[in-house]
């Protein structure tokens, strides 16, 4: 005990970081399955070179952990926690090449205190492996450029490729790299270096599986992630709610102090560049090259497009390092106090579910729904189960039930990755089904009282059954409408 106390006194920053991580680890067993956990685990159960929504790294990660440690909710969460911890370690290693020892520790404390690290530790998304490989990419690029270590060009190429295999926004790594070299007088000569282009070539080789899957599937994933969204952006309709929504998300993810520092130094450097035509030092310019395109670029879209809360996360890696150059101990202390308050509130919500979540994006009720559905199948034997909410209910039930649960492609609606696992839906012809539909707003226990129009034409008769009500601590928290559908007819 004395040794531990002495260690904490000598290394208070380490104690703070370990405190946050142990707190997150403590909460893991109490976190239920999120729909995203289930969906990306579904990726791993249907191994492929890539997938419709995203590349497959998160699916491979979850498959690896569940193969070794077993298929449980805790193991899925543990995978996210372990990889995010590795991201923190990589981030600290990166911070030490830019900052003094004390400022690097401050940067690690700032990063560890954010809510976005907690989100990545609890919830499976492509951002979990993305941020690890993003950190490793920037670190290797630093060593290749500033320390002239040629083999790090190769390591950077591999890391950038693996980042892209995690999420398409990793393309901003190459954009940041070329932007830095283009603006840097000192290092511009590297634009004609064979090592640079070898690195980019290696990154392209590592991403080949994603390109090959897209080629085999009419570039469906690239079209989904690009053309659909650029079409919305091209409408150029000002929507203030989008901007304020993104602002609120960033304030929560980073917490107000760190977000304010981000805004302050961004304004400072952009103003200096535009009005005084003066760029920062090479190392600061390098950090900004991997911050500005992502943070400012996505923020610039918010008045006309709904930017998801996780899109700016990669910019936090170098953004926090820059913030550590400016922030005082006083504001670090305020950041920590704010963070502790938020994390206590999160813990209370996880442990006691104090505030009902009117959404399917919740960790509550999925396992109970699976049990209730299996019991219902005993009353209606030989039925298959399907849902129609993009992926959430279907993925969650697939995780907990020892049978295949189908999505909305049953009724002719595009169903994301469920469309690409090779199902022959015609084998279900003439079978009966149970259709599960979440009542997100859940105001009472009453049946819906109407038949969903999208089911008509696919079944001979459709009968609404008694809703499934999920209770937590003797309190009704979720509701699912249930329909018994007779004699399915698949339509090509």
TrEMBL record:
<feature type="transmembrane region" description="Helical">
    <location>
        <begin position="74"/>
        <end position="95"/>
    </location>
</feature>
<feature type="transmembrane region" description="Helical">
    <location>
        <begin position="12"/>
        <end position="34"/>
    </location>
</feature>
<feature type="transmembrane region" description="Helical">
    <location>
        <begin position="285"/>
        <end position="305"/>
    </location>
</feature>
<feature type="transmembrane region" description="Helical">
    <location>
        <begin position="334"/>
        <end position="355"/>
    </location>
</feature>
<feature type="transmembrane region" description="Helical">
    <location>
        <begin position="107"/>
        <end position="134"/>
    </location>
</feature>
<keyword id="KW-0808">Transferase</keyword>
<feature type="transmembrane region" description="Helical">
    <location>
        <begin position="195"/>
        <end position="213"/>
    </location>
</feature>
<dbReference type="InterPro" id="IPR050297">
    <property type="entry name" value="LipidA_mod_glycosyltrf_83"/>
</dbReference>
<feature type="transmembrane region" description="Helical">
    <location>
        <begin position="242"/>
        <end position="265"/>
    </location>
</feature>
<keyword id="KW-1003">Cell membrane</keyword>
<dbReference type="InterPro" id="IPR038731">
    <property type="entry name" value="RgtA/B/C-like"/>
</dbReference>
<dbReference type="GO" id="GO:0016763">
    <property type="term" value="F:pentosyltransferase activity"/>
</dbReference>
<feature type="domain" description="Glycosyltransferase RgtA/B/C/D-like">
    <location>
        <begin position="53"/>
        <end position="213"/>
    </location>
</feature>
<dbReference type="GO" id="GO:0009103">
    <property type="term" value="P:lipopolysaccharide biosynthetic process"/>
</dbReference>
<keyword id="KW-0328">Glycosyltransferase</keyword>
<keyword id="KW-1133">Transmembrane helix</keyword>
<protein>
    <recommendedName>
        <fullName>Glycosyltransferase RgtA/B/C/D-like domain-containing protein</fullName>
    </recommendedName>
</protein>
<dbReference type="GO" id="GO:0005886">
    <property type="term" value="C:plasma membrane"/>
</dbReference>
<feature type="transmembrane region" description="Helical">
    <location>
        <begin position="154"/>
        <end position="183"/>
    </location>
</feature>
<keyword id="KW-0812">Transmembrane</keyword>
<dbReference type="Pfam" id="PF13231">
    <property type="entry name" value="PMT_2"/>
</dbReference>
<keyword id="KW-0472">Membrane</keyword>
<feature type="transmembrane region" description="Helical">
    <location>
        <begin position="311"/>
        <end position="327"/>
    </location>
</feature>
